[in-house]
Amino acid sequence: MNRAKILILGAGYGGLSTAVNLQKKLNANDADITLINKNDYHYESTWLHEAAAGTLSPEDVRYDIKNVINGDKIQFVQAAVTGIDVNARKVTTDKGEHTYDYLVIGLGFEGETFGIEGLDKYALSIANVGAARQIREHIEYQFAMWSQDEVKDDSRLTIVVGGAGFTGIEFLGELGNRIPELCKEFDVPQEKVRVLCVEAAPMVLPGFDPELVDYAVRHLESKGIEFSIGTPVVQATPEGVKIKKGEEEFDFIKAGTVVWAAGVRGNRLIETSGIENMRARVKVDKDMRAPGFPDVFIVGDCALMINEEVNRPYPPTAQIAMQQAETVADNLIALMNNEDTHEFVPKLKGSVCSLGEHDAIGDVMGRKITGTKASIMKKIIDNRALYMIGGAPLVMKKGKFNLL
Ligand code: FAD
Ligand code: NAD
């Protein structure tokens, strides 16, 4: 085996799982592996809506990378990547430069604003732990200010969520439970609070099973959440959002908080890396390599792969990122052994969308589930992701056991 220099960028589901898979399969002398991540912790992106709503503390959604990495096999560098140049085989960070024989890019997702005016500036996005903390604190600030203000502006208590995809719906589910707590804490009458989800498509959770969608909408409406469907957000201002209601018909919703959850793109560093991309995502070869760059693998949300059965890209999910990581690790080892790489074939098990701590909807292995059953399934999935990376000790430390 050639002792190769492997550089992994990002310790999200894709990057960290690649590192963990490599450390399970290689001896310390087989390769020189470096993992670079902005923070010294990994966060469960799939739990960020909970930290953003304030139903889970930011501390609970993250854990130290060093706890799951074997330092004899993998060198961890805490640094922010600032540039990737695949033609020069060079990566720059705020702490220095790195070269590589093989590069794995797993720098994850960013919120997509589609160039809509004002969103970058005036909307918050559930993008990472810091951003989730900011949303939680912003909402608490609005409640505190309303309580304190002599002349009360009720729009402080309006929260607009842009996008009724999985992220938007899961966040609304948490808000449904959090709002009554906030009202109690800040002496706010609950009827003053308005939570409105604005969705461009003609339905909530477009493309998901209509019966399950109906369950989710009824559940959220029972918590006081409103929906405005078929009405895209077209502008954000410091006062709120403008939505399009008809050909020439617009409405303005005054809101103290706007959370943008209307889709994701890849990490912007991809756009200047020299690799062809679409919205910072790379249409990867079947073995997860970047076209034209046989020494570069892309894993997770920065990778784009077409599901030929429906001729659409597979959705960017943690489920797929972790499966890709196994293939990427195996293919790195194959290349080091001068063997052929193999194709990545996703094994889709379904989706579960939480609606707050004890409710959810899911389509798992072709079976529709709702309520407590779905909620327990979601927690099993969450705990499984921990197990895959850090084994039983990590599940015991960070797992979700409040099943009922
Ligand atoms: P990420 O998890 O985004 O990780 C990227 C890593 O790169 C991070 O550690 C980040 O700090 C690091 N990084 C970024 N930029 C730099 C830089 N410049 N320098 C150094 N490091 C950097 N999917 C599911 O399958 N199931 C779910 O239930 C689910 N729930 C979700 C809930 C929410 C609220 C959200 C937002 C997403 C959810 N997803 C879910 C999608 C899932 O989270 C993503 O598909 C997944 O996180 C992608 O993994 P990744 O490794 O590509 O990137
Ligand atoms: P998404 O792309 O799935 O949904 C975005 C929603 O925003 C869509 O319904 C879209 O119609 C809407 N939208 C777009 N532009 C709009 C506009 N101008 N105004 C109003 N609405 C607009 O994005 P997401 O929900 O952030 O999910 C990202 C990825 O993460 C997906 O692959 C999703 O499956 C995955 N995810 C999975 C889970 C889970 O499995 N439980 C949870 C969260 C996210």
TrEMBL record:
Entry GO MF terms: NAD(P)H dehydrogenase (quinone) activity
Cofactor(s) for this UniProt protein: FAD
Coiled coil: none
Family: Belongs to the NADH dehydrogenase family.
Pfam families to which the protein is assigned, alphabetical: Pyr_redox_2
Tagged with keyword Ribonucleoprotein: no
Keyword field: FAD, Flavoprotein, Oxidoreductase
InterPro entries in the cross-refs: FAD/NAD-bd_sf (IPR036188), FAD/NAD-binding_dom (IPR023753), NADH-Q_oxidoreductase (IPR051169)
Domain FAD/NAD(P)-binding: from-to ranges: 5-325
Protein's recorded name: FAD-dependent oxidoreductase
One GO BP annotation of this record: aerobic electron transport chain
